[in-house]
Amino acid sequence: MPKYTGKNLETAIENGLKDLNINRKDAEIKIIQKPSKGFLGFFKKDAVIEMRVVKHKATNPVKKAAQPVQSKQVTKKTTPTPEKIAEDRFERNFAVVKDLAKYLQDVLDEMGINATLEVDMPNNKHVYIDCQTDKEGLLIGKHGRTINALQQLCEFYLSNHGVNYVEVVLDTANYRERRRKILTDLAQRTARDVEATGQPVHLDSMPSFERKQIHLALEGFDDVLTYSVGNEPNREVVIGPR
């Protein structure tokens, strides 16, 4: 079957339908590669599909009526494969993600932030939304509180629309990577202080995905351990001697 590509599945399908000059109901579509814009500019992939024309057989109602009852065959329902189930789930989830992008655009407009959104959903577990705007400071907020709240709002939206256990990363102007480097540096400097003094240090409260970055940054430190204390949204990481 001929292959067609596009930035997303819909674009690839439209390219195939246009090339074959057919309607969607007359096409058999096989997904070869799901699209991925990657993360932080890496691992970008276009959608790739195969498509062929389906020839529909004309029915003959008179002949069918003349057949004896005994000759009728019972059509067995085919059980969808795990791959087909995953593909259907991805398409349903991606439709909700596109609605989320429209919802987030409306929220940003109400905040006075004119932004262009680029959305990527490489799988059923992760969604990346990059906001291109000249008001990064307003979008990020003090200590990242605004962008973190909007990111959590996106996860609530997906959950309320039946898309559960999905991690959303909302970014602008490469803020998430810059913040990761800041947290890594903070964790390592604090760990060295703990090694020198033997006293535990409580870091400021932060969201769960940032606490995870602290834990990961200190996996190679044999003389310190990390754990979280407190209740959300004031849960904090403690770096202590092992």
Produce the secondary structure layout.
Layout: E1 3-6, H1 9-20, E2 27-33, E3 47-53, H2 61-66, H3 82-110, E4 115-123, E5 126-133, H4 136-140, H5 145-160, E6 167-171, H6 175-197, E7 201-202, H7 208-217, E8 224-229, E9 236-241
Parallel strand pairs: 5-6
Antiparallel strand pairs: 1-3, 2-3, 4-5, 7-9, 8-9
Helix pairs in contact: 3-5, 6-7
Order of the strands making up the biggest sheet: 1-3-2
Q: Could you give me the name of the CATH homologous superfamily of the largest domain? A: K homology (KH) domain
User: How many helices?
Assistant: 7
Order of helices and strands: EHEEHHEEHHEHEHEE
Mean pLDDT: 87
The profile of the biggest β sheet is:
3 strands, antiparallel
Low-confidence region ranges: none
CATH class of the largest domain: Alpha Beta
Distance between the termini: 60 Å
Residues in β-strands, percent: 15-25%
Share of residues in helices: 40-55%
How many DSSP-defined strands?
A: 9
How many discrete structural domains? 3
Q: Tell me the structural class.
A: alpha+beta
What is the third-level CATH name, the topology of the largest domain? GMP Synthetase, Chain A, domain 3
Shape: elongated
Please name the CATH architecture of the largest domain. Answer: 2-Layer Sandwich
Q: Evaluate the radius of gyration.
A: 26 Å
